[in-house]
Design a protein that fits this description.
The structure is a homodimer. Chain A has eleven helices and nine strands. By secondary structure, the first copy, chain A, is an alpha/beta fold. Chains A and B meet through helix 2, helix 7, helix 8, helix 9 and helix 11 of A and helix 2, helix 7, helix 8, helix 9 and helix 11 of B.
Chain lengths: ~325, ~325
């Protein structure tokens, strides 16, 4: 069994604090003229950047690829952006090799690894020694800037919100304490344009706190989860974290869903004005909830030995 | 509290048996020349057809829309297929009205309702008196035929497999009994091209058996769930249903994941030769697991009063 050394904790707080610095990153994806569609290839902590981007940008079709293969439509009119923090993710490398064969315009984002050898453009992440999921700023901003989906002012606002959370995250810790007290399974409900952030929280619960967790989104969940909430097995076992919404329709759906299913929704209201600042606020809020839960559970948030074990087994296959 | 009348049960078995007949449906989406991309708009039980289709067809970009709004790229070069069983789903109607305004080529699929008044082409589902989620064949086949993603021979094989499950689904019932015995939360793991079927099972557990349930897919889950499986809260509370895969890499991932996380995976091996027959087999297998669980829990699989309640509240907003 793992026990935490003080070293591990200090190290991970350093990683969380690093998001702020990432918001100063000014690299951008160069989008050639004549591009008809976009594929973002990436897995896990490196795939989340594409998921977030695809919710904020839809002026061209954006398809996400999180498997070994690219979609069939990929051609020289496609921009394939392949993201892998290490640069050595098996699935992502398989996809980028295909992209090159298909003459797609290819951009790679990594801190090194084999991925750095591919791509019409390569964006180098300046540090290679942290967890991929702690490097979201470096992986996301080049997409947002490249497609004019944000600007420096919005990112500056995000900086302030992220910095404030670094200084005071007691509210995040309260949620973690409530989850630990009840040994609850976290369920995170988001809504556009933050559905991907709900999924991000789920993955952070998995990796930082080592517990299963699930995400879903309004209004789609009103067509499935809603039917289960009132009578589900183990009703008391879940802890609902729900992002507040400025959309009147979605806000109404949240209220009514909680009421008719007799569920306690813990509402997290995003701070900030722009969608981009709100998204970084929510993202970082989730970083802290899951980090604190990891501490309370006495698991090491940086331990991903099982993933390493799996990767090793896959190579022996 | 609800108690089941024999009438409800008989009715729902009739619905499940109706999938077979739906496989004789020969309507197809007409795809105009010059179409550059496709948007499938639909929610819940009517949205699943698009999700399944997008895994089997990728010769053009297919984007799914399950909210009030269409993506920004929609233009006259876009084919928007809007699916709502009732034809009156609030979100889908909002999207199809926008599609018409944007001069997109529009196909609507419904059993009537307001949706039937829209669309350059309308495909009429022949019955309007069953649950949307029991009408997947009618909603999916026109997409598959329209884009040449299947043929009559494959669907004929599917027919045989679906019919066999209608006659003997004791294996499905065994899973339901094990879930009920342990009051387990079902977790369904799929892999390409059946990731959407894993999600379909989740939604069927929600609606038919009234319990929360969650789905995820290989290889992506190896980057998140895997880290949680060994140490999660309430480890004994979950029941894992995992689709077997013919891909050696995915099969290896399934084996290794179960082993290193000390998890019991109940493997469901798809029958059939083509992807399309396998998908209908897996889909229908899940119909029966969730139906039996509904019976064992003494809930009414056809009761969706909470969704109706919500819809009513939304209209009053």
């Amino acid at each position: 069994m793992l026990t935490l050394s003080q070293g591990d904790l200090t190290e991970f707080i350093d990683e969380l604090n690093m998001l702020k610095d990432q918001l100063r990153f000014r690299e951008k994806v160069e989008v050639p003229t004549g591009i008809e569609n976009i594929v973002i290839a990436g897995m896990g902590g490196s795939g989340i950047a594409g998921k977030i981007f695809s919710e904020l940008y839809s002026r061209k079709p954006v398809c996400l690829a999180d498997d070994y293969y690219l979609p069939d439509f990929v051609s020289k009119s496609t921009l394939v952006v392949a993201i892998s923090y290490s640069g050595n993710t098996e699935e992502t490398l398989s996809m980028v090799r295909d992209a090159v064969k298909l003459n797609a315009h290819t951009v790679t984002i990594s801190s090194g690894g084999e991925l750095a050898d591919h791509g019409d453009q390569h964006i180098r992440i300046p540090r290679s020694d942290i967890q991929p999921r702690s490097a979201t700023g470096w992986m996301l901003l080049p997409l947002l800037y490249g497609f004019n989906a944000t600007n420096y002012n919005e990112v500056k606002e995000a900086y302030g919100l992220v910095e404030a959370l670094d200084k005071d995250n007691t509210e995040c810790r309260s949620h973690a304490k409530a989850i630990e007290k009840g040994e609850h399974i976290p369920v995170i409900y988001g809504a556009s344009p933050f559905k991907s952030i709900a999924y991000r929280w789920k993955t952070q619960f998995n990796e930082n706190a080592k517990t299963l967790a699930y995400s879903n989104s309004f209004p789609e969940l009103n067509h499935n989860d809603t039917m289960a909430l009132a009578k589900t097995y183990r009703k008391g076992s879940f802890y609902f974290l729900v992002f507040g919404s400025q959309s009147k329709k979605i806000a109404k759906r949240i209220d009514v869903t909680a009421k008719i299913t007799d569920s306690k929704f813990n509402i997290i209201s995003p701070k900030g004005h722009s969608a981009v600042s709100k998204l970084f606020y929510l993202l970082h809020y989730g970083d802290y909830v899951t980090y604190h839960l990891g501490l309370l559970r006495d698991v090491d948030p940086t331990d991903i030995s099982l993933i390493e074990k799996l990767k090793k087994s896959m190579k022996q296959a």
